[in-house]
Amino acid sequence: MILGLGCDRDTSGKTIETAIMNALASVGLSMNDVVAVASIDKKSDETGLLSVCKQYGWDCTWYAAEQLKKVDVPNPSDVVMKYVGTPSVGEAAAILRAGGKQDDLMVEKYKFRGSDGKHATVSIVRVKHE
Predict the structure, then answer these.
(1) Which tens digits make up the pLDDT trace of 59-79?
(2) What tens digit of pLDDT does each residue of 111-122 get?
(3) CB neighbours of residue 64 within 10 Å
(4) Which of 68, 94, 69, 64 shows the shortest CA–CA distance to 4?
(5) Is 42 domain-assigned?
(6) Does residue 79 lie in a domain region?
(7) DSSP designation for 53
C-alpha cells in the first residue's frame, strides 16, 4: 500500500501514526502492509511525519503543488488549495506515487484530529503489480 499523508504544521508523530493506524484498520490492513508514503514537498520538514516514516522504514516521495494539482481526486478542498496551492495533498500524492488513478483509492481521505489538536489526513492506494 501507498499512503498519501497531509497534516497541519507541527503535527505530532503520535497523531500522524494514530491516523495511519486507524485508516489502515478501516480496510483491514496494518502498518506492515505499507511500502511507501507520499506528500507535498511543503511537508518535507515536518518532524512528526518524518519520524513516523523513519520508525517504520518507509520511503517518502515529495511532490510539488503543481504536480498534485493535475491529479483528479474525489475530495478536492478549497481550504487546502488556499494554504498549499493544490486542492489535494494526500489523495493526489498517493495516486501519483502508486502510478494509479482515483478509482484505485482504498481509503479516500481519512481525517483525524489528535490530542495535540492537530489534524492529519491519510489516503491509501494499493500498489499495482504488473
Answers:
(1) 999 999 999 999 999 999 999
(2) 999 999 999 999
(3) 12
(4) 94
(5) yes
(6) yes
(7) H
